[in-house]
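Design a sequence for this backbone.
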């Protein structure tokens, strides 16, 4: 029987996929966002999925409901909301209502007593002030130490684990006090994976309302956006183009991540929730499936929910944002494998 795992703040399931590929079995996923929950249930394969605010749950009752006894759970993993700590967000840190949610991992670890805990966050999380001069990382380490775990934190780049995207993330691993642990070594790759390699064998994208030949491979680019995209050369961005002023509007040279076209010969820059990048050679946005390939998701993982038009909005997380918010499964797999090896699970 595979070692049992539970995910909190499960999102669209990137961590779950990586953890399960490392030899664990995620048997329960807890998530609040409605579209993410639909995606998790679509791909559940026997996994229990609960749509609930973590803060509303009694962790001891969760253990009873799932028939978990001390020693049954191998891994508790999750990616608490990163918006309070994101470089492109409002940077409210612990003053944001979502800021303290990472500490819910401690509360659940205390009740469920897993062999290990894995947490994903943006790098800025580690150096954010918790209170006074204490860093969030140190405060979190102190709380885990109080319940019998040592905390190890490192910033890893997904591109070094076979993902065609430069995406740095803080990976936090907690193991029983006194247990040795090392984060995974980077893969020995002659060259990093590229966008071109990731998406080259996809069939043509279809328009909304048509049945795609690959799941979520749907193009929703409005006609007026195609004109703007046409000015951007491969690997460059609108502010660097020769587009007329009425197209560029108020963009400046610093806007290098806005209205950007990815390069087939390189890894993508970090996918973002607020911006969908352009296809390397076609005058359209990347489809959700193309971004999923860039994140390292398998094609059989289907995303459920609306596809947000660039000029519109969607309640809860649309497909592009579900992908951009996710943990790249190959990165999650590398860290989960290192935990499994360290603890001989």
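Sequence:
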């Amino acid at each position: 029987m595979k070692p049992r795992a539970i995910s909190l703040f499960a999102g669209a399931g990137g961590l779950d996929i990586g953890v399960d590929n490392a030899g664990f079995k995620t048997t329960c996923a807890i998530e609040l966002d409605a579209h993410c929950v639909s995606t998790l249930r679509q791909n559940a394969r026997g996994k229990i999925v609960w749509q609930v605010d973590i803060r509303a749950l009694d962790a001891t009752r969760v253990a009873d409901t799932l028939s978990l006894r001390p020693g049954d759970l191998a891994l508790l993993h999750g990616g608490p909301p990163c918006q309070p700590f994101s470089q492109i967000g409002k940077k409210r840190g612990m003053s944001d209502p979502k800021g303290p949610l990472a500490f819910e991992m401690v509360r659940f670890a205390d009740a469920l007593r897993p062999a290990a805990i894995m947490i994903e966050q943006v790098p800025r999380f580690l150096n954010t002030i918790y209170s006074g001069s204490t860093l969030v990382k140190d405060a979190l380490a102190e709380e885990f130490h109080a319940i019998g775990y040592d905390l190890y934190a490192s910033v890893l780049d997904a591109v070094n684990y076979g993902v065609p995207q430069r995406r740095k993330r803080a990976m936090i691993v907690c193991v029983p006090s006194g247990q040795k642990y090392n984060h995974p070594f980077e893969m020995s790759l002659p060259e990093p994976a590229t966008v071109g390699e990731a998406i080259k064998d996809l069939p043509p994208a279809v328009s909304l309302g048509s049945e795609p030949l690959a799941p979520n491979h749907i193009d929703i680019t409005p006609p007026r956006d195609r004109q703007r995209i046409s000015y951007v050369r491969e690997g460059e961005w609108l502010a660097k183009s020769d587009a007329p002023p009425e197209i560029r509007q108020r963009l400046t040279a610093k806007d290098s991540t806005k209205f950007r076209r990815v390069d087939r010969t390189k890894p993508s820059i970090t996918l973002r929730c607020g911006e969908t990048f352009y296809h390397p050679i076609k005058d359209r946005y990347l489809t959700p499936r193309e971004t999923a390939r860039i994140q390292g998701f398998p094609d059989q993982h289907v995303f459920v929910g609306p596809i947000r038009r660039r000029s519109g909005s969607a309640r809860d997380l649309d497909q592009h944002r579900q992908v951009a918010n996710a943990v790249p499964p190959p990165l999650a797999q590398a860290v989960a494998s290192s935990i499994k090896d360290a603890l001989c699970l």
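The longest helix spans residues 329-343.
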